Amino acid sequence: MKPARDGLRKAEGTLSRLDQAVAQFSAAVTAQPNDARAHWQLGLALQSQGNNEQALVHLQRAVQIDPGLVRARSDLGAALAWLGEFDKAEQQFNRALEIDPTDETAKENLLRLQLKNSAQTKEGAPNTGGL
Asked: Can you tell me the distance from the alpha carbon of 97 to that of 92, in angstroms, rounded to the nearest whole number?
């Protein structure tokens, strides 16, 4: 029983840290609404909580403020993929690679998306969210 309790405590600690991160980045966005990195970090924290819809809003705002923020654009693509918006996700990954052709995260995400689409097409099953 002790390992289960330890695991539960660890999970509760992680959730607590995520809640704190969301609160801190929300405060940063409120204080500096045109800070692309604050929106990006808030989007990541929300995404980690599984709140992809809200994360999407902040990731979109981050790339609107700073279109060259490659990692935010790649993370936006991942959020779009989780929401089943595969064409839009692919556009974001490709745009990230236009900005920085060496970005490994965008390359990996684009490859995962393409493999998933290819597997779904072969199986004839509808493509559902996620990478």
From this structure: 9
- Cβ partners under 8 Å of residue 20, min gap 6: none
- The DSSP annotation for 17-36 comes to HHHHHHHHHHHHHHH-TT-H
Calpha distance 123→59 (Å, rounded): 32
Q: How many CB atoms lie within 10 A of CB 8?
A: 10
SS3 label, residue 10: helix
* pTM summary value: 0.79
Domain enclosing residue 28, as ranges: 2-123
For the chain, the domain total comes to: 1
Residues 6+ apart with CB under 8 A from 34: 65
* Residue predicted with more confidence, 16 or 50: 50
Q: Return the CATH number at 14.
A: 1.25.40.10
User: Looking at the predicted structure, is the pLDDT value of residue 46 above 60?
Assistant: yes
